[in-house]
Amino acid sequence: MKAVILAGGRGERLRPLTDAVPKPMIRIKGRPFLEHQLELLKKNGITSFLLCVGYLKEAVIDHFGDGSRFGLKIEYSTEGSFLGTAGAIKQAEGLLPGEFILLYGDSYLPIDYAALVDAWFKRDCSGLVVCYDNSLHIAQNNIYLSPDNRIISYNKRSPDSRANYVEAGVSILKKEILGLIPPAGQVSLEEEIFPLLARDGLLKGYPTSQRYYDIGAPERLKSIEEVLL
Question: Which fold has domain 3-225?
Fold first, then answer.
């Protein structure tokens, strides 16, 4: 299955680090963070990628090229202006297969991806979201997941009082959801599309007790250094 990585944001909270390089290219243990992420996925048998790039995109493209020197196949979708997480996927529509794994270019989730894909093929839904049980209380719960793994509600800004999981930054989606995304302008997958899918019973969860890591803020850089090889 092809993996799509959203790697086009500005990383405002990481300035001045991101004044010269895009957020996914910040060096962790001597290598760009995105390189660590791709290596994790390759170890899990995923070798075909679509990188959605925008801000300082040349730094990503020049480093990874077509992916061949990393044993990967990499394609690119480029944004001329910031389109949001859903808008970036819509922009890449012509390069997307019928179903794909979606990840954020600032997150790291060391799970068994083959097991995730296997679960996807056993569930009838438009989207399967990895849900962290938040046992370490690293963020505010934003997903209410039922005992039969249906996502009843998804809201990052005003979560359901029953919310019991946190989105872990990885999902599998059917290309058909692009029909919900307007053809132009900024659109958020998390704020506009996932809540619609949850409302219509089309979004399911894949629960995990494995915490995720991200480089979205300066204080999180040290935490991820302790995890990456």
Answer: Spore Coat Polysaccharide Biosynthesis Protein SpsA; Chain A (3.90.550)
